Amino acid sequence: MADALERITNLVALLMATRQPLTQEQIVNELQGQYPAGEAAQRGAFERDKALLREIGVPLDSEVLAGGDAGRTAYRINRGRYELTDLQLTADERAALQLAVAAARLADAQFGLLKLGGDRGSSPVVVANIPELPALPALREATAAHAEVGFQYHGSPRRLQPYALLLRERFWYVIGHDVDRGEVRTYRVDRLESELVIGAPGAFERPAGFDPRTTFPTDPKLLGDEPTARAQVLVDTARADAVERELGASAVLERRPNGAVVVEVPCANLDAFRSWLFGMGEHAEVLAPADVRRAVVEWLQAMVVAR
Amino acid sequence: MSVRRGPRPTGDRLRRLLVMLPWLMERGEVPVAEMCDRFELTEPELVKDLELAAMCGLPPFVDEMVDVFIDEGVVFAGVPRLFTRPLRLTAPEGFALLAASRVAMQLPGADPDGALARALHKLAVVLGDDSVVVETPPPPMTELVAAAATEGARLRITYWSPAGDHRSERDITPRRVFVDGGYWYVIADDLLRNDERTFRIDRIEACERTGDIDALRDVEVPAIDSWFADDELPVARLRVPTSGRWVAERYPTRSVEPDGDGWLIEITVASERWLDDLLLRLGSEAELQHPPEWAGKGAAAAHAVLARYRAAELDQAGSDGS
Fold first, then answer.
1. Domain end position, chosen among A45, A62, A82
2. Residue A29 maps to which CATH number?
3. Tell me: the pLDDT tens digits for B53-91?
4. Is CB count within 10 Å lower at the N or C end of chain A?
5. Beta-carbon neighbour count of residue B71 at 10 Å?
6. Neighboring chain B residues of A120 at a CB cutoff of 8 Å
């Protein structure tokens, strides 16, 4: 039997050359003897070929025919949509892209670069590990096309007009206008609980000058109902320098003679605040406000009692 | 999912072929070895796929056949007819190219108006407006450390280590710099310890060149999220409630399994001090199941921190009474 690669290559050539969309029957007929005999085997092989073409990104157009062939599906490949537009990259632009791709070490970027005529670069001194998630490519396309997306999140359906994708620390976020909630929301892409449903392109306008970095505070301790809430924390000498480097000198309220400092820290998000606090173990103590201090003490007491 | 029929899946071969053919046709003739290197194929693989492509097209029309042959170690392309342009960028390729470029724009020494920025601008023509934002600002020392790695220059650094809560002076020769999970690291030869070590760049408090230059040496950068995986480190098994799932997202784990309304997580323990802090953050609903000798660890850590709150309150009470 012929190599499946040969059959599929011929299928691509045929569907690109044809002016009229072709039905499965016509395709099998044109590619004499390359599809297995027998209705079921033929259909199975054809379905696999279609799936494979879609998987590698060949744009396969299909339409349901009317008239004599009513109800049958016919296929073709639109050459304009198939072919990569020549970007006319200059040598230095291609080289810069090559460096970027070599630093990021993403297989898909390396392959995309081959299509753009770039080479596999040598391994650079500075490299980046970028988290990859299956939903990201489609989300980016929807974002660029201004198409609404639907997905499940925390057990409920969301409809989002995506404005941007943001990589911060180890997570990718999608930021956009939540249609049902009527406000800008941020969702972690690795926590989407369903496949994406992608709407029609051009469904919304992104606000001019939108910058996800400003709508989404860097500090998770700020993400709460009262973003202005602050706690005063005493940090021992051992950690004082590190904390001051992290928060900046402006956060220091008091410097004690022994080298310890009292710093002011956002605590709107108590979980994030506690996580930050306990990163210093017994080297840090909440002084105020009283309710935050109490919450920390209760948290610790529960741990002692739990044993 | 494509069906695997042999060592190389058909999808991979087709994907590569549709890039190889236009590239070849544009050049006319290319040594087999050069093509193998570029497309990451062995010679038998390349020859097999090209010979097969030469049989492809739409017979009987000779002007609709792929015209390729191999002779004396050189691949020749005849008249370009089919597959003269590469297949458009797929969604994953487009995303990966943009993400890679955005990250590269943040690397030390990147020029915001340079060639990469212009390339990105051209990419937007086929990929649509660029809405990918990457935020991995390198700490101040990064550029210096990366430059040292490029030259093999030795550095004397003051390094703060959270595990022991102490500072040390070390002479290192940086080899490679990488960013992972928002943190920047340098892999370096630690000269006093005569060993290769990975340092977090934001923990380098001071840094200067010693004036020594060492021969360049290439080192592997670990794959994402894999680099703390160390077989010699102890492994702890935690049971956490649903809300404790972040542990698995934040730290490299050996295994993560659902367990009723929570998760069982096996995690590498780089230091007991780190584990104490982790237990404090997880709180009373988390349970350390293994190893048994660490069973009381969370309570002990909580007790130690509570002690300082109690002491402070006693002080307070004492001063109120007087």
1. A82
2. 1.10.10.10
3. 888 887 766 567 788 888 889 999 887 778 888 899 999
4. N
5. 9
6. 38, 40
Domains in chain A, number: 4
| Class at the top of the CATH hierarchy for domain B142-213 | mainly beta
Cα distance between residue A208 and residue A211, in whole Å: 9
B235-304 has which fold? Alpha-Beta Plaits (3.30.70)
φ/ψ of residue A270, rounded to 5: -65, -35
Tens of pLDDT along A198-224? 999 999 999 888 888 777 665 666 655
Please report, for the domain that includes residue A302, its CATH number: 3.30.70.240
> Does one domain contain both A228 and A296?
yes
- Categorise residue A298: left if φ over 0, alpha if ψ from -120 to 50, beta otherwise: alpha
To probe the interface with B, which of A31, A77, A82, A111 has the most B CB atoms within 10 Å?
A111
Please identify, among A216, A233, A261, the residue that sits at the C-terminal boundary of a domain. Answer: A216
* In this structure, CATH architecture of domain B10-77: Orthogonal Bundle (1.10)
CB–CB contact A104 B103 (8 Å) = yes
Which residues make Cβ contacts (< 8 Å) with residue B149, sequence separation at least 6?
Answer: A125, A126, B174, B175, B176, B177, B186, B188
Partner residue facing B304 (CB), from A92, A115, A282: A282
For A132, the closest chain B residue by CA position comes to: B96
Strands (E), A91-190: 126-129, 149-153, 156-168, 171-178, 183-188
- The rounded mean pLDDT for chain A is 88
Domain locations along chain B: 10-77, 91-127, 142-213, 235-304
The answer to whether the Cβ–Cβ distance between A301 and B97 falls below 8 Å is no
Domain limits at A95?
Answer: 85-130
How high is the ipTM of this complex?
0.76
| Residue A300: exposure state from Cβ atoms within 10 A (0-12, 13-18, ≥19) | buried
- pTM for the full model? 0.75
B50 vs A contacts (CB less than 8 Å):
none
